[in-house]
């Protein structure tokens, strides 16, 4: 008995030491704690609480490692978290960690697998294991469910050999991710039949399966349940905080938008589509009008989310009116969106596309940039079909033009060591460079996280080498600011400046990071200018046009010489050529 008590005390002291090192210790304390944990696990390998402490200690090292990651260390951390969350059979019952610790460990393992190792299948497995922990609460299951479905809906296949068993109800071997998604929706829906999130993801899955009528019905169920949750919250306001009701209202608005979109795809009338959106507006407007009544920070943050959803609602109402030819009504809704958020990119672009010659056209002619959230969302939604539509359908050649002009401007390409690819997208331009100049380190960035994920996986056709050394999810100027002075040989941007507009900040950062005589290669779209025109304008396409005079002036202003300007057809749109130019600038100072 005494020996057991001493061993228990030793374990307790060990855990306290590890916890103290994680939270308060300096580097020496952390390394000592790591060694203590590792030594203990050598003697006693099935000790989840020690594994958990070691995982946290090593996890902290991963988080502070920056770009210099030790992949073997990352994999060790993932395995530790996995064993804590799903202990092997050899672990004694009394040693099994609490439910919350197991759930959090599996969720962390999944997050690292997804975001650091880029192992989506592994992440899916860990999220699904988290869902089957005995005694887990509804909120936690729904969090794991949502993360799983996001991955499944962005995947193409569950890797061969994958075997997943959830509570004996789902078994998947080499399963199509969309079919597995439906199975998960049925599983969670049976447990929580009143949860709108399940119907929302079922609708998204059916939409991808090209079943528009079934998708519409699922989204409609999600909308109805969301509305019921909101009304119940309002009726029980004494028991529910105001911001909790805001969350339910926001969900009702978002599902109403989804219903309208699914109705359009299912061939349901414009009037029925609009009625879904109008109903959401009727519920939301009185709530927004009472914004000043709430002063606490948390409620205001929740209300901000609601306001953002209202902007989306008005934009969708405007798009719907535009599609049925009611341009005056469409402009009214886009103006409502801008009344809430004057910089909303979607509303600005839509107004530009239908009102370039009247008062609205003049009111947006001063716009020099689009908000980053709009651009990121645009390309997140476009990522899965980006290359097939842009290259195959719209005959886009901007990446080829930039690369050819860049090579023509490089008398000695072997001297080039570092190239930055702004707005790298799926890696079209990067692959051309990496294939022809394999010695070059290419660093990409894109506002769209989904584009980043795709480009990180891109390999060259010959040899299967990764195209990019790194890919970041930053805007162009911020990304360039991370490079040391005179450390970059070339900066390229294919079909990017048309979404940035005013490129002054970008050229400032290029000037700082480029070597002497460094190059900037990019495309711009042309448009017919007037005498009073600044040379930069938001076009009806929703993209910016840059005049030749503007480019020459801004290049000179920022210390660049226009080395070459070549007029070219960049792509097709609505069966017509989109004219522009490919430009090479050279640093002069």
Give a verbal description of the structure.
With 589 residues, the protein is of the alpha/beta class. Helix content is 59%, strand content 12%. The protein has helices spanning 2-24, 27-43, 48-63, 71-85, 99-115, 120-131, 138-153, 177-191, 196-208, 212-235, 242-265, 270-289, 297-323, 327-340, 345-354, 359-364, 372-382, 386-393, 398-408, 428-436, 449-457, 476-480, 497-500, 504-513, 548-557, and strands at residues 163-166, 170-173, 418-422, 441-445, 470-472, 488-493, 514-525, 536-538, 544-546, 560-573, 576-587. The strands form 3 sheets. It has a 7-stranded mixed beta sheet, with helices on both faces. Strands 1-2 form a two-stranded antiparallel ribbon. A hairpin with a 3-residue loop joins β1 and β2 (170-173). α1 (2-24) runs parallel beside α3 (48-63), α3 runs antiparallel to α4 and α5 runs antiparallel to α6. The relative contact order is 0.04.
């Amino acid at each position: 008995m005494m020996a057991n008590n001493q061993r228990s005390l030793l374990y307790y002291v060990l855990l306290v030491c590890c916890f103290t090192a994680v939270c308060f210790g300096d580097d020496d304390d952390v390394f000592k704690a790591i060694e203590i944990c590792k030594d203990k696990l050598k003697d006693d390998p099935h000790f989840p609480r020690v594994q958990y402490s070691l995982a946290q200690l090593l996890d902290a090292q991963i988080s502070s490692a920056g770009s210099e990651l030790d992949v073997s260390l990352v994999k060790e951390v993932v395995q530790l978290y996995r064993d804590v969350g799903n202990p092997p059979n050899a672990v004694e019952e009394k040693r099994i960690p609490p439910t919350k610790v197991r759930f959090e460990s599996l969720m962390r393992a999944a997050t690292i697998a997804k975001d650091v190792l880029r192992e989506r299948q592994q992440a899916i497995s860990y999220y699904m294991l988290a869902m089957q922990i005995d005694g887990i609460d509804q909120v936690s299951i729904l969090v794991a469910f949502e993360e799983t479905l996001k991955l499944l809906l962005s995947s193409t296949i569950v890797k061969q050999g994958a075997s997943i068993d959830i509570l004996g109800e789902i078994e998947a071997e080499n399963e199509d991710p969309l079919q597995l998604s439906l199975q998960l929706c049925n599983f969670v829906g049976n447990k929580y039949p009143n949860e709108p999130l399940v119907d929302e993801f079922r609708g998204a899955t059916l939409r991808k399966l090209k079943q528009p009528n079934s998708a519409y019905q699922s989204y409609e169920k999600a909308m109805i349940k969301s509305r019921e949750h909101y009304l119940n919250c309002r009726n029980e306001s004494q028991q529910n905080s105001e911001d909790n009701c805001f969350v339910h209202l926001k969900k009702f608005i978002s599902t109403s938008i989804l219903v309208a979109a699914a109705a359009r795809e299912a061939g349901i009338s414009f009037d029925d589509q609009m009625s879904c959106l109008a109903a959401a507006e009727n519920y939301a407007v009185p709530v927004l009008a009472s914004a000043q009544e709430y002063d606490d920070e948390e409620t205001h943050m929740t209300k901000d989310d609601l306001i953002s959803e209202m902007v989306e609602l008005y934009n969708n109402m405007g798009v719907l009116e535009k599609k049925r030819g009611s341009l005056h009504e469409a402009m009214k809704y886009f103006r409502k969106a801008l009344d809430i958020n004057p910089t909303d990119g979607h509303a600005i672009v839509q107004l530009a596309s239908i009102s370039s010659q009247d008062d609205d056209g003049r009111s947006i002619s001063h716009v020099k940039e689009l908000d980053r959230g709009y651009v990121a969302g645009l390309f997140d939604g476009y990522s899965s079909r980006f290359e097939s539509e842009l290259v195959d359908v719209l005959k886009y050649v901007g990446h080829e033009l930039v690369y050819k002009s860049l090579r023509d401007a490089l008398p000695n390409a072997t001297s080039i060591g570092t190239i930055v690819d702004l707005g790298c997208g799926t890696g079209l331009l990067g692959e051309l460079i990496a294939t022809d100049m394999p010695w070059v380190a290419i660093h990409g960035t894109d506002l769209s996280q989904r584009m980043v994920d795709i480009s990180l996986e891109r390999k060259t056709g010959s040899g299967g080498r990764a195209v990019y050394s790194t890919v970041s999810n930053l805007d162009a100027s911020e990304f360039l600011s991370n490079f040391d002075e005179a450390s970059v040989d070339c900066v390229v941007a294919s079909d990017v400046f048309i979404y940035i507009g005013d490129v002054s900040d970008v050229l400032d950062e290029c000037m700082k990071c480029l070597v002497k005589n460094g190059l900037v290669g990019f495309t711009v779209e042309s448009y017919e200018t007037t005498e009073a025109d600044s040379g930069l304008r938001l076009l009806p396409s929703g993209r910016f046009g840059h005049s030749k005079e503007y480019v020459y002036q801004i290049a000179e202003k920022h210390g660049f010489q226009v080395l070459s300007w070549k007029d070219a057809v960049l792509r097709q749109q609505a069966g017509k050529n989109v004219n522009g130019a490919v430009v090479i600038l050279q640093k002069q100072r």
